Amino acid sequence: MSAEETSRFVQLRVELVLEVQDEDEVTKAALRRLARDPELPEAERSQAEAAVTEDTAEALAYLVDPFDLVSEVPGVELQQASWSSERIDYDPDSPDWDLDEDDGEDDEEEDGIG
């Protein structure tokens, strides 16, 4: 393969920390999206409704879709995505949350907003 062919695929890693200010609104939004999803089988819909009602992190995972994040980017097509959501203890002053810190991997130089 040429260098041009090997560079066609890019893995983009994004880590977000969100402050949920209104859990009920997040849950309601997830339930509305579930209700509008025509491809979701009824058995899965019931399970998803229970999950988003019980856990705001699950509701967010249902609402934040990687396809939505890149669908308007010209010249790219999402090939695969996985994501999860969990409740965390967040301290913005902790060195554990320094987003500019090297993650220890030998990544190529990244351009981004820090």
Primary descriptors:
single chain; mainly alpha; 5 helices; 114 residues
Series of H and E elements: HHHHH
Distance between the termini: 34 Å
* Tally of alpha and pi helices: 5
Structure class: mainly alpha
Strand content range? under 5%
The percent range for helix content is 25-40%
Low-pLDDT residue spans: 106-114
Q: Taking Cα atoms only, what radius of gyration do you get, to the nearest Å?
A: 18 Å
Tertiary shape? flat
Query: How many β-strands, per DSSP?
Result: 0
Largest sheet: none
Q: What does the average pLDDT come to?
A: 82
Task: Describe the model.
- With 114 residues, this protein is mostly helical.
- It is built from five helices and no strands.
- The two termini are 34 Å apart.
- The model is unreliable at 106-114 (pLDDT under 50).
